C-alpha cells in the first residue's frame, strides 16, 4: 500500500488529494454491509462533505448536482457544513422493506433504505452523523394534454380516485439518486472490480482517486442523474403479483419528452403508457412509470444531435438500414444505457411480475426477465402515435429485435424506410 | 511544487492519481488562450481520455455522461481510445463568430468554438489531436399538444415556414456542454480562483484533484448537465438587435415539463413561451428557448420532493409566506441555479437586446441586464395558465421580486394563499 503525498499549489491550508484505508482511525465511519436484511445490520450510507471521518463512500450526494452545491459553498451562498433539516420530509408512502432488500445482488445501484434514513438511522443522526436521504417519496397531481385528449375521446373516464374530473391524475412519485455498490456493479458487467474502478477513474479523466486508493470503500455515489417513478394506484400493490401491474421503463429524451420532436417515439410512447397505467389502476391494478435520466442513450445530447446530422446527410439519406451504424461511428457504441442496472428499481419496489410491459425494447425485456421478474403481455406503441419522422427509428429497432406482433422488415424494406432530409 | 507519488492498490499497471504542472513535457497539449479573437489564437479544448499528453483541461467530455462512457469501457462495450468519426456532423446553421467571442469575461462557461471544431481545428485533428465538439447544431420539427391547441383556437395560424399545417414547428436546435474557464467563473462569483478550485474539489467529496494540483489548467469540463436551445426563425437574426427577439430562459423541471405536475408553472410557462416565439418569428422576428439542466433549482429532484413534503405538512399547511423558508431549511439555500452563468449562452448567440423576455424571474432579469443585454418588455404567464396548486409558488415569487404588472401580495395575502395538502 502506498502512502499518500499531497500537494497544494496555492492555498496555505493542507489539502488531502485522496485518502487511503486506515487513515480515518477507529472512531470513524459506520460499516456498510450491502444486502444485509435490516437497516441496522446494513448501516447508513454517509456521503457528507462536512465531516470527513464519517464518510463511508466515494463521491457525494445529489448526483451531478453535488457540483452546484460545491459552487454554492465557494460562492458563499451555502454555509459549509449545512445540515439538512428533515422535519416533515419523510415519505408519503412506505415502500418496503421487501424481501429483495436482503439480497445483495438484486440491487446494486440503489440504497433500499435511502427513503427512510430519518427513521431507520435516527440513532446515527442523533449521534451527529450526517445521514441524508437518497430517495424521496411524495404525492402529486399531474395534468397532461394527451390525457385530456383521451378523456375527450372517452378512452379514459374520470373516476375521481386515479383520474379526476379536471383531467389530473393522482400519483405517488419517487425521486432516486444512484448509489453504486461497486462489487455488485462489476459482477453485473462481468468485469473485475479492480478493472471497473480503474476504468471509472481513468476514463473520466481522473475523477475520484479514491476509486483506486480505497478498495475498502465499496459504495460510490456517482455524479450522474438518477430516476423518477410515477405510481398510479396503491404503491404497496406493486409488490403483490396478484395485482395487475402495467409498467413502462422510460429513458429520458428531452427533445421528445418535453419539446415533441418528431424524430422519435419517446413522448408518444410515454403518454400512451401513462394512459395504460391510469386504465389499469382504475380496473383495480397498479401502474408504474420508471423514468431514467439517460439522455440520448446515455451518450448525452451533443452526441445525439451530431448523430442526427450524420444520419440525415449520409449518402442515400436517413434510412432505417443505417440507423445504428451512424450512432456507432460517432459514439463508438450503439447504446450506452446499460439496462443491466435498470431492474434494480423494480426489485426495490418488490415487483415479481409485470403483467403488461409498455415497451418494445428487447434490451429492457431481457434485463427484466433475466433478473428474475416475469413479464406477461408486451404492449406496442399504437401505429397512429408514431410521428412522421420516427419510422426510421422504429423500423430499425424492430429489425434489430424490438418486440412486434407484425412482420419484421427485411433489408430492402429497411433501406426503403426514409426520414426527412435536413431542410 | 510538490512531486507526485501515486499508488495502486490492486492492479499491476501504474495508475497516476493526479498530475502536476510540467509533467507533460514540451510536446504536450496546445495552450488555451481564453477569449482570444480567433480559434487559431484561442486553441482547441482537449478533454480526451485517450492520450493524456494532449489534455489541456480538467475533466472530460459529455458532462455527467462521461461516467457512462467510462462504464462502457469497463464493460468492454466501447473500445478504449475510440475516436469519433465526425463525418457529416457539422452544424446545420453557423452561429457566429460574434464579437462577444473575443471578450473573455463575456463567456466563461461555454466554448464558443465548440460547434465548429471539425472546421476551425482541422489541422490539429489531422495531426492526431482528439478534439471533440462540445456543441451540436441540428434541425428539427417539434409537435406539442399545446401548440395544436393554440391552432384550434386560432391563436396560431400555420404559415408553412415556422409553423406547418400538421402542427409542427420548424426549429434549429443546439445542445451545449459546459466548459468552465475557472478564472472567469471565480470572478463571476467574486471569489478567488484558489477558493473556487478548493471548494469544487472538497465539497464534491474529492472530485478531480487536478482542480488543486493544476493551477496551470484553467479550463474544467464539469460532470453536470448542459443546455439546449430551440430557435424559431433564422438563427443569424439573434445577433441583429433590429430583429425583434422573443426569448425564454427556462430551467428544467422534469415533474412539470414532462409530466405536467400542477404544483408549479414550468410547463405552462414554457409552452406559452414557445407560442410567443412562433408568433414572433411569423411576424418577421426570431424566437429562442434556452433550456438548462438545473432540476429543482439545481438542488436535484430528491431535495425538491423532500421540500414538497415539508411544505405540505408544516403547521398551517402549504402557504405562500413560507414558500422559500422550507427550501432553505432542507437545502440550506433558497436556490442554487446561479443565473450568474446563464447569460453566457446569450452572448454566444450574439444577442444584444431581448425585445420580449418571457420570464418573470428577477434573478434572470438582473443577470441578463447586468451582463449588458438590454431587455424590452417582460411577458407574464397568463393567469389562466397557472395550475391549481401553483398559486403558492407564483405569489411567493412575486412578493420576493418577480415581475408583475399587477399588485404585489402583502403578508396577509401570502399567508392566505394555500396549496393542497398531501392526500
From TrEMBL, chains A, B:
GTP cyclohydrolase II domain: residues covered: 244-379
Keywords, comma-separated and alphabetical: GTP-binding, Hydrolase, Nucleotide-binding
InterPro entries: GTP_CH_N, GTP_cyclohydro_II, RibA, RibA-like_sf
Superkingdom of this protein's organism: Bacteria
Presence of keyword Cell membrane: no
Listed Pfam families: GTP_CH_N, GTP_cyclohydro2
Biased composition (Basic and acidic residues): 1-11
Domain GTP cyclohydrolase N-terminal: 14-203
The UniProt record lists the keyword Nucleotide-binding: yes
Location of region: Disordered: 1-28
PANTHER family per UniProt: PTHR47259, URACIL-REGULATED PROTEIN 1
Name this polypeptide is given: GTP cyclohydrolase II
Organism: Ideonella azotifigens
Amino acid at each position: 500500500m502506498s502512502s499518500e503525498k499531497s500537494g497544494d499549489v496555492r492555498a496555505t491550508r493542507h489539502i488531502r488529494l485522496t485518502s487511503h484505508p486506515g487513515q480515518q482511525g477507529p472512531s470513524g465511519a459506520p460499516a456498510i454491509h450491502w444486502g444485509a436484511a435490516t437497516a441496522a445490520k446494513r448501516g447508513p450510507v454517509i456521503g457528507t462533505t462536512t465531516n470527513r471521518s464519517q464518510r463511508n463512500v466515494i463521491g457525494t450526494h445529489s448526483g451531478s448536482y453535488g457540483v452546484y452545491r460545491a459552487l454554492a459553498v465557494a460562492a458563499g451562498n451555502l454555509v459549509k457544513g449545512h445540515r439538512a433539516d428533515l422535519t416533515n420530509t419523510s415519505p408519503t408512502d412506505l415502500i418496503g422493506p421487501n424481501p429483495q432488500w436482503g439480497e445483495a445482488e438484486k440491487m446494486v445501484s440503489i440504497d433500499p433504505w435511502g427513503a427512510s434514513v430519518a427513521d431507520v438511522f435516527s440513532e446515527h443522526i442523533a449521534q451527529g452523523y450526517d445521514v441524508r436521504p437518497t430517495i424521496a417519496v411524495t404525492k402529486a397531481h399531474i395534468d397532461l394534454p394527451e390525457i385530456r385528449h383521451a378523456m375527450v375521446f372517452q378512452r379514459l373516464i374520470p373516476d375521481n380516485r386515479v383520474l379526476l374530473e379536471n383531467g389530473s391524475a393522482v400519483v405517488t412519485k419517487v425521486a432516486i439518486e444512484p448509489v453504486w455498490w461497486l462489487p455488485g456493479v462489476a459482477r453485473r458487467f462481468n468485469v473485475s472490480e479492480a478493472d471497473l474502478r480503474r476504468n471509472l477513474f481513468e476514463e473520466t479523466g481522473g475523477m475520484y482517486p479514491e476509486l483506486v486508493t480505497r478498495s475498502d470503500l465499496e459504495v460510490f455515489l456517482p455524479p450522474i442523474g438518477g430516476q423518477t417513478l410515477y405510481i398510479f394506484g396503491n404503491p404497496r400493490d406493486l409488490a403483490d403479483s396478484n395485482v395487475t401491474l402495467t409498467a413502462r421503463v422510460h429513458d429520458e429524451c428531452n427533445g421528445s419528452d418535453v419539446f415533441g420532436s418528431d424524430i422519435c417515439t419517446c413522448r408518444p410512447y410515454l403518454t400512451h403508457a401513462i394512459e395504460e397505467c391510469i386504465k389499469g389502476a382504475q380496473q383495480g391494478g397498479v401502474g408504474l412509470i420508471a423514468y431514467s435520466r439517460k439522455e440520448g442513450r446515455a451518450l448525452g445530447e451533443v452526441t445525439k444531435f451530431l448523430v442526427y446530422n450524420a444520419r440525415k446527410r449520409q449518402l442515400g439519406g436517413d434510412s432505417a438500414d443505417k440507423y445504428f451504424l451512424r450512432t456507432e461511428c460517432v459514439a463508438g457504441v450503439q447504446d450506452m444505457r446499460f439496462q443491466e442496472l435498470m431492474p434494480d428499481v423494480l426489485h426495490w419496489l418488490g415487483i415479481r411480475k409485470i403483467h403488461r410491459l409498455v415497451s418494445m425494447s428487447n434490451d429492457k425485456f431481457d434485463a427484466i426477465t433475466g433478473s428474475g421478474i416475469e413479464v406477461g403481455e408486451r404492449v406496442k406503441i399504437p401505429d397512429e402515435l408514431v410521428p412522421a419522422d420516427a419510422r426510421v427509428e422504429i423500423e430499425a429497432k424492430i429489425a434489430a429485435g424490438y418486440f412486434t406482433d407484425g412482420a419484421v422488415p427485411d433489408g430492402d424494406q429497411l433501406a426503403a424506410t426514409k426520414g426527412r432530409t435536413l431542410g
